[in-house]
Amino acid sequence: SLLAGHAQEADEANYDESKIPPYTLPALLKTANGREVTTVQQWEQTRRPELLSIFTEQVYGKMPADKVDVSYKKLDDNHSAVNGSATRKQIEITFSHNGVERKALLLMYLPNHVKTKAPVFLHFNFQGNQTISSDPDIIPSQHSDRPRGNQASRWPVEKIIDAGYGLATVHYFDFFPDSKDRYAESILALFGYQSEGDIPADGGQAIAAWAWGYSRVMDYLETDWQVDASKIILMGHSRLGKTSLWAGATDPRFAIVVSNESGCGGAALSRRQVGETVNRINHVFPHWFCKNFRQYNKKEDELPIDQHELLALIAPRPLYVASAEEDRWSDPKGEFLSTAYAGEVYKLYGMKGLETTTMPAVNTPIMNRVAYHNRTGVHDVTDFDWENYIEFADKWLK
Ligand code: GCU
Fold first, then answer.
1. Best label site of 100, 123, 189, 350, fewest CB within 10 Å?
2. Residue 265 CA: which ligand 1 atom is closest?
């Protein structure tokens, strides 16, 4: 299956710290022409835009700037969901452009006890809206026939509602069915792209399309009277963790960004080459990153950026990066180090990053403006992860 990441674990993958090739990370706080960045102004006016355009052109790819027509149709608005504690809304979002139409189905649960606009966790799902809960009234997503409640362990809906947060989700296939043969069904078709061959070298593919989807859902959330759009916590797991970081970097409207086990091309430093590598990811998932990223297959040293610089693009907004001890494919230590290094930019803002380069013990979160934990267990989204994201959101939004 698409999600059986561990089956792809290559025999040659390295997990031995002593076998990591020596590397020098690109300096986060030095401009392309060698000037030290010492102020927020230099960061915001020079260095940040410089890094953002490198990530756009060399890693994730550009989305066409065309304005797409969008309409919202409310299919459901039920105030007695989750034993009466939540309002369930289902909104069909229709995109049309160049005579092409694509639809995304947004599922939301909003806490009834919050009388003002609620802060919301926005978190796309892997297997279809109907899989996040056994609620029989969830409309199944168009690209999925998976059973109801199949993924419920990853979606503690009651816990989220009780904590005073809403939850918004879309099946990520609605924006790009996750396969190298399905460009024509994706939102890229709105822009005239039907297959990989149509995409320019710096053009966005699946990750850019999913990130575009996160921003389009944000457009909707801004219109919903029950949602506090200034308090959206953008969250993603794994390939969608890579996506949440990219969406958070490109769209400053997201108040908090959470990366759950995003690994290679997400929070992990590429130059460590631990677990999944740039070469491996570009071969197994040629439809994820832009084609230019392939230039760095087995040439991590030539990358003009590394992933600590992606994390820094979230600053000064709160950022939480999480790993799992047994998820070695995502390189927990590489995720930790890049998160620690990104703290340099938070420091410019007078805010606290992780304030250490020593990895904390398992199940012991560090929670400053930048947060990190490495929980015990495998590649997954667990209650431990959610409880900490809720605590982090409480800390910065309440
Ligand atoms: C595979 C892939 C990872 C990805 C993961 C997932 O393991 O190699 O890069 O993060 O799938 O999305 O679960």
1. 350
2. 9
238 assigned to active site: yes
Query: Do 120 and 167 form a contact (C-beta atoms < 8 A)?
Result: yes
Q: ipTM, 2 decimals?
A: 0.98
Instruction: Rounding to the nearest 10 degrees, give the CA dihedral for residues 327, 328, 334, 336.
Output: 40
For residue 276 and ligand 1, the question of a CB distance below 6 A is answered with yes
Determine if ligand 1 sits within 6 Å of the CB of residue 261: no
CA angle 162, 396, 353 (to 5 degrees): 130
H helix or E strand, kind and range, residue 211: helix 206-221
Contact between 124 and 174 under an 8 Å Cβ cutoff? The reply is no
Under-50 pLDDT residues of the chain:
1-8
CB 236 within 8 A of CB 326: no
The pLDDT assigned to 12 comes to: 81
Question: Residue 147, preceding bond cis, omega within 30 degrees?
Answer: no
Q: Are 126 and 155 in contact (CB under 8 A)?
A: no
